[in-house]
Design a protein that fits this description.
394 residues; alpha/beta; 5-stranded mixed sheet; 12 helices; binds magnesium ion
């Protein structure tokens, strides 16, 4: 099942009184049309987006869609209906099963509206999102109110309007030259069944200057929640020396007469880093995610823990910006291995080594590290996450 989208961007937007057609106006530094196209390109159920433009707008279009993966635009006609027909004819080469026909000036189409329209096409020939009317509706002649209309039987038609591709192409060919207000009307003229699904108020069409202001406000609210903020976490860990154990520090095997005791491979450096990253996103600690009582983590490489912590950041649409680790011991000597450790951590987390610092210090022969009983490690992680990042269950 392939689903194509036809975006109708051939209008000249005379009502807005702007120097550019409204679909090319900047909305938060990106053209309205680009935002509309992205809403569909980013949707998992959409395979292809075809745009219909005015011949005169070729340069504007090229700039608006630079870098996006799209077929050449179709060129519109004198009316919206003619432009849609031209777009459908262009889409015929791709033979999609369904087509969603959408206004270029509705950039805030929601994922739910796209899904609901596509789902409705399982049982109907066509579907469109509809909004209820909230005001009382009157019939008017001149200045006189002449009657009341039951608003419960009325709805405001939005787009995308979805159809079986072959059927709507045929319907549009038959309707050519007539002046029907939207594609659902063309479909019904051809006897196709059309289902109304729930539309959303934010899927409004940018037609007037007021609409453009409203769109800017919607965008502001959206981006306020997704703006990145920086968060910091710290981690600390200690493991005691043990004979007959490997010495692995930051994923790097270190030649030394002793190893470190622990349930896993006892990589004290990676444990401190893991806790620092989890701390930065307030996501518990290493013991919550990998209980030492669970036999499946016995002897496991601590790379698993660190990679998991990194994935918890990614799951919140965040990324790690810096890691700073200090290993505290009298021996083994860390310095000869620092570069290998940075590269090891970089590989595990798919980060650039320039974001990773590994340092070493002693405690001047004081305390348990000074007496050579084990190694301590402390780490600080800085991550960038959207301000609206939600907690996810462990
Ligand atoms: Mg540990």
């Amino acid at each position: 099942m392939t689903n194509a989208v036809l975006i109708v961007a051939a209008g000249r937007g005379a009502r807005l009184g702007a120097p550019l057609p409204k679909q090319y106006l900047a909305l938060g530094e990106k053209p309205v049309l680009r935002r509309t196209i992205r809403a569909f390109l980013d949707h998992a159920d959409i395979d292809l987006v075809q745009v219909v433009i005015a011949e005169a707008d070729r340069d504007l279009y090229s700039m608006a869609v630079s870098g996006l993966s799209l077929p050449d635009p179709a060129i519109g006609g004198d009316t919206r209906q003619q432009s849609v027909l031209n777009g459908l004819e262009a889409l015929q080469a791709h033979a999609p099963d369904n087509v969603l026909i959408h206004d270029a000036a509705r950039p805030f189409v929601s994922e739910a509206e796209i899904v609901d329209v596509l789902e409705a096409l399982v049982t109907h020939d066509g579907a469109l999102p509809v909004l209820p009317l909230v005001d009382s509706i009157k019939t008017i002649e001149g200045d006189d109110v002449t009657g009341e209309v039951d608003r419960a039987t009325l709805g405001r038609a939005l787009t995308p309007q979805g159809f079986g591709f072959a059927a709507i192409l045929q319907a549009h060919r038959q309707a050519a030259g007539r002046n029907l207000t939207d594609d659902a009307a063309v479909a019904r003229q051809a006897g196709m069944s059309v289902k109304a699904v729930t539309g959303q108020e934010r899927n409004f069409k940018i037609t007037t200057q007021n609409d453009l202001h409203r769109a800017e406000q919607v965008l502001e609210v959206d981006t306020a929640g997704t703006a990145l903020e920086f968060r910091t976490g710290s981690g600390f860990d200690v493991h005691r020396f043990a004979a007959d154990r490997p010495m692995i520090l930051c994923g790097v095997p270190i030649p030394f007469r002793l190893g470190l005791d622990g349930h896993s491979d006892a990589d004290v450096g990676l444990h401190a880093l893991t806790d620092a990253i989890l701390g930065a996103i307030a996501d518990g600690d290493i013991g919550d995610h990998f209980p030492p009582t669970d036999p499946q983590w016995k002897g496991v490489s601590s790379e698993v823990f660190l990679r998991h912590a990194g994935q918890r950041v990614t799951a919140r649409q965040g990324h790690i910006t810096a890691l700073d680790l200090t290993l505290i011991c009298e021996a083994p000597k860390v310095k000869p291995h620092r570069q290998a450790m940075r590269e090891s951590i970089a590989r595990i987390l798919a980060l650039d080594p320039s974001r990773i610092s590994v340092k070493a210090t002693t405690t001047e022969r004081l305390g348990f590290t000074g007496r050579g009983e084990g190694i301590a490690a402390q780490a600080i992680a800085t991550v960038a996450v959207p301000g609206n990042a939600q907690e996810s269950p462990i």
